[in-house]
Every structure is written in C-alpha cells, then in structure tokens.
Amino acid sequence: MGAEHRPGTFIDEWGCVFENRQEGIIGEVKEPMVREWKDAERVRPPEERLSVDTGRVDDFCRGSGRFVLAGSKARPFERIQFLRKPENLFMDLADPPDELFRLIERVHGFFKEELELWASTEVDALFFADDWGSQRSLLISPALWRRLFKPLYRESVDIAHRNGKYAFMHTDGFITDIFPDLAEIGLDAVNAQLFCMDIEDLGRRFGGRITFWGEVDRQHILARGTRNEVFAEVDRVRRALDRRGGVIVQCEFGIGADPGNVFSVFEAWENRV
To answer: Which of 46, 60, 96, 184 has its CB 3.0 to 4.6 Å from that of 13, i.e. a possible disulfide?
Structure first.
C-alpha cells in the first residue's frame, strides 16, 4: 500500500510500514513488526512472490538475446532490519538470542525458495543483496558476519551454481573485510561501493577472482565532479580491476547526481576500451 519512493506511508509485501519524507528514496521503518519476540508469530512471508509465471520469464529470456538477472529480492539482513528495526537488531546481534536465529532461519528459508524458483527458469544469474558496510567499516564484526550470515550467502551461491546460473550480489559501503569470504564462497559478481575502499588493493587481491559490477563514485564525482574527473575515475577503475574480464560497466546514481556526469561515465567506457 502506498508508493515506495513517494513521501508518506508505504506498507511492503511483508507488512512492514515505512515512513518516507523525501521523494525518490526509500523511507524508514519507525514501528517494527517484531517489537517483542512474541510478535514474530505475526511474520508472514509473501508467498505470492512464489507465483511467478515461469513460462513468461523463459519466453522473455529466449527473446531478449541479453544477459538476464532474476527478479528476486533476497536480502536476509535488510529484511530482518525491516522486521525488527535496525537499532533493535544491532542490540540483538551483541548477544544473539535463540529467537533471532529462528527469525533468520525463517526469512532465509523463504528467500531460498524464491531463489530456487528463479533458478528453475532460463535467467542467466540469480540476484541477492544486503548493504553491509558503513563509510569506513563493516556494520558488525567480520567474525560475527562469518558466523551468522556467510552461510546464508554460501547457500544462495550454491543454489545458483547447482542450477547452472551465475550468482550476483549487491552490497554497499566498506566491505573490504569480507571480500575474501565472498570470493571463497564462489560469488561471481559483486556490485560494491568501490570508492569507499582502496580500489587498487581490491584489484591486486581479487582481480580475476571475482567480477566487479560497477561503479563510479556517486557520493562526490557524480554529484560535483568535472567531466575530466569522471573520465579519470573511470580510467582508475579500469586500470585497477579490469583483469581477465573482471569489470561489468555499471553506474548507480540517485538524487543529487549530475546527469551530464552519468552520461560521461558511459562515454568514457565506450571511448576508452
């Protein structure tokens, strides 16, 4: 109910209520569905997402002639934030109760069903996402991430590979600490916020081991950079990461981006191949 990117109230398919004050962005959950653990019984995964017309998906894939990503929305960490509210979840993670493990298992179980469904179609890659970084660090300790969440992503990657698909993941922020883990579990491509990290170091350590799916600095360069600065940053990404087919050209942008700079990103890629 409501519109996800419009000011006002939006209720998503899980029943989480978002309050939004800014056109063009996603709002925040102010009142969590799971305020107390007994409220977890109210959580009902949106089974309608499993009623995908796989025949239409296959027809689209056969007729497109392009690489097709699944239309899945698997994002266990973010979904639990929406259900629990971020500040409550981070307190939970300090000393995880049994109820948290049960909620993670329930949410991830649904997303596995969704990924299996898409894996049965002719899409080329499965897609899942969770933003794991702040500007300068991981949101939780790498050890806790490996204990609680790495197994979830490993299962998602395994679903993709078992069905002959690639595994693509989006995750924003500083995630240098878990890059080795993402490569280890066999993730094929990661859409990361590269300019929060040391791009050259990522290239030295992971070039050729994992494909970098974008991007160019949307915090500064896309918003306030000159055309020459955009070209320079695209060159930097290429030099650091383009090893054995290691980069997919991609440019994410939002409110505040200069449309001319966005155009220049793709111009730079096309003209400097």
So the answer is: 46
Residues 136 and 184 in one domain: yes
pTM of the entire predicted model? 0.93
Contact 160, 166 (CB under 8 A): yes
- Residue 35, classed as helix, strand or coil, is coil
Catalogue the E-assigned strands of 17-160: 17-20, 28-29, 125-129
| Containing structural domain, residue 239 | 216-273
Q: Measuring CA to CA, how many Å separate 265 from each of 193, 195, 206, 226?
A: 15, 15, 23, 11
Q: Output the CA torsion 69→63→267→270 (10° steps).
A: 100
- Domain assignment present for residue 209? The answer is no
pLDDT bracket for residue 25 (50, 70, 90)? confident
Same domain, 137 and 234: no
Please give the structure tokens belonging to residue 154. Answer: 């490993």
Residue 202: which residues within 8 A CB-CB, separation 6 or more?
A: 176, 179, 194, 212, 240, 241
Using only C-alpha atoms, the chain has a radius of gyration, in whole angstroms, of 19
What three-state secondary structure class fits 37?
helix
The more confident residue out of 1 and 202 is 202
